[in-house]
Amino acid sequence: MTRRGIERTLAALAAVIGWAGLALQFWLILQNFGVVEGAWRFLAFFTILANVGTAIVASAMATGSRGLATPRVRYAAAVSIALVGLVYSLWLRKTWDPQGLQKLADHALHDAVPVLFLGAWVASLHEQLKWRDILWALVPPVFYLVYALARGSADGFYAYWFLNPATQTPAQIGTSIAVLLVAVALLAAVLNTIDHWIDDVDDEGQVKNRGMADPEDAQRPPKGNGLVEEADRESFPASDPPSWTLGRDN
């Protein structure tokens, strides 16, 4: 399978699993809150919004629609969904034990989609990012933080404890936000470094493929004669839980 084929296959899997996981999680939350409140609660979580964005970008990559999957957009989506997987695996997974369909949705959105999309991103053709593009990776988390604090102040529900002024002082909230943004910047720097490495490897491969043949070979007369020689000359080469569980509060 070609590199583009690997990219599209992994992106298609990420898109299908992502949309299916989102639909399942939405259905599960409706069982507890109803349509209106459930939809509002559903959209409170960074995990959900990051998966929606990733599913959109993955769908564009799978179908070859580059308008919604430019290098910067793919990069920002990769950083956000990697953040979802890392934070959940390192800090949140051990705090609850989902069962049944909730466990299926949980694995789809926190495990399968991050791994598949990052695989598609690595396989995609890389147009070397600039270091200043780290700012693009910070856009989704910054937008979410502003959005989460604004909607929390309106209805009192904060999807994540470290943003909740009822349990955290302003200084603690500020510290949590600063730590989170530094973590995102470091993660973005790692992926940016990977992008540079892949781009350098691609450039080296292209240079080798364009390498010139031995000049002496070009001066040697072709071997063979008659019809075989004529056919050879005329031929050409072919190429080409807790609050973030989305359940009801106790």
UniProtKB/TrEMBL annotation:
Q: Which organism is it from?
A: Sphingomonas alba
Q: What is this protein called?
A: Pr6Pr family membrane protein
The UniProt keyword set, sorted, is: Membrane, Transmembrane, Transmembrane helix
Q: Segment Disordered: which positions?
A: 206-250
Compositionally biased region (Basic and acidic residues): 206-220
Membrane-crossing ranges are: 12-30, 42-63, 75-92, 104-122, 134-150, 170-191
In terms of InterPro entries, this protein maps to:
Pr6Pr-like (IPR049713)
